[in-house]
Design a protein that fits this description.
385 residues, 2 domains, 10 strands
């Protein structure tokens, strides 16, 4: 067996973020892939120790530009737990509303990117066109099209009225129709089927063993969703289905996202039709917290998002640790490349919906010696120190 090594990246054809895949291949068959990242230096976790609790809402909302409201949700609900801050029911429903709108546009984005990676540029443009009304709805609710800055401790910053409610419902009717059409295209178009079906196989046992999360895990038939398993915001009151496909391939991972988009549209309708009356935020803002610790998690569009927050009292956190879903899916997802063709590598990477910048915030310090330590991200993902 004669192996060759092919660098894919760091300027990558599958996404506009720097990451390198060192692909070792025997002819056209992929034998092994090593993930090399570290090209972005964010410093978000360390910066959070210097900011106040309120300023950190804006900081952690910017860990990821696509799924910024779920980062705000995870951070604020952890802080609210430590401070014993009660969130009004109407605010919980509005938080759920904006998170599901975010899930819709996030899933539509990665499905469009998949079409672009395969070479179906016209489909990419059409899907991005039909995603744009969802971005406008996000602006309608929060005041901002991308970075919403919608959260505050104990609630949200803006309310909606009947006019906004009706507009959201009308727009989602058209979006739903288009999403159903695009799902049909992915299922029936020969080119898409040929590039996605039976490509990047991850069996259920392997998906669990390697700690994959979100649609990547559910595309292997594993029914796991934080919204159902550990409800937060208003999810404990909203009926919804956890979507799974048992094809275990790249197509299944994309179909999960299409069905979850349709499920999110139904959830938004439920929220709007059952929106409680009452305040959307506490009258007096909270600026200091007692000593305490919180483990907070939500189901981001890419999977389980986890925050560990430590307070020693005062107006700043002692520690905020962030673990994003892409951390596991990108690094441990290398199992999906084995025995694939070289040309399938960008497709498989896209099928896990990678977010590179949100994974790179890590500093490891040996508390006994005070010395910093450099670890491979692969070791960190396995919990090795």
């Amino acid at each position: 067996m004669s192996l060759i090594e092919i660098p894919v990246g760091p300027q990558h054809p599958a996404l506009h973020e720097p990451i390198m895949l060192r692909v070792r291949a025997d002819g056209e068959r992929v034998v092994d892939v090593q993930v090399v990242n570290g090209y972005n230096h964010r410093g978000a976790e360390k910066l959070g120790e210097r900011n106040t609790w309120i300023k950190n809402i804006f900081l952690y909302s910017r860990v990821c530009g696509i799924c910024n409201t779920v980062h705000a949700q995870t951070y604020t609900q952890g802080v609210e737990f430590i401070g014993g801050i009660e969130v009004p029911p109407r605010a919980q429903y509005l938080r759920t509303l904006i998170m599901e709108l975010e899930r819709i546009h996030s899933h539509m984005l990665i499905c469009a990117v998949m079409a672009e990676v395969i070479g179906f540029d016209s489909l990419f443009m059409l899907m991005m066109r039909d995603r744009e009304p969802v971005m406008m709805l996000k602006e309608l609710v929060t005041g901002n099209r991308v970075l919403s800055d919608y959260y505050t401790l104990g609630g949200v910053r803006r309310d909606i009225d009947e006019v906004k409610k009706d507009k959201i419902l009308k727009v989602l009717e058209k979006v739903e129709e288009r999403v159903k059409y695009y799902k049909k295209v992915f299922l029936e178009d020969f080119t898409l089927s040929k590039r996605l079906r039976d490509v990047g196989i991850v069996k259920p046992l392997d998906a669990v063993k390697h700690s994959l999360v979100g649609p990547t895990l559910r595309g292997s038939g594993v029914k796991s969703d934080v919204r159902r398993d550990d409800p937060y915001a208003a999810y404990g009151e909203i009926p919804f289905n956890v979507i799974t496909y048992d094809g275990c391939d790249s197509l299944s991972r994309m179909l999960v996202r299409f069905d979850e988009t349709l499920e999110s549209i139904e959830m938004v309708r439920y929220v709007l039709n059952h929106l409680p009356q009452g305040p959307i935020a506490p009258k007096t803002p909270v600026r200091t917290l007692p000593k305490g610790e919180a483990f907070s998690r939500v189901e981001a569009p890419r999977g389980e998002l986890f925050y560990h927050i430590v307070s020693l009292g005062g107006d700043k956190p002692y520690r905020v640790k962030v673990r994003t879903p892409s951390f596991h899916n990108i690094i441990n997802g290398v199992i999906a490349y084995k025995d694939a063709h070289i040309a399938d590598v960008p497709v498989i990477l896209t099928s896990v919906d990678p977010c590179v910048s949100c994974t790179e915030r890590v500093v490891v310090i040996d508390e006994a010696s005070g010395k910093s330590k450099v670890l491979r991200l692969k070791d960190l993902s396995r919990g090795l120190r």
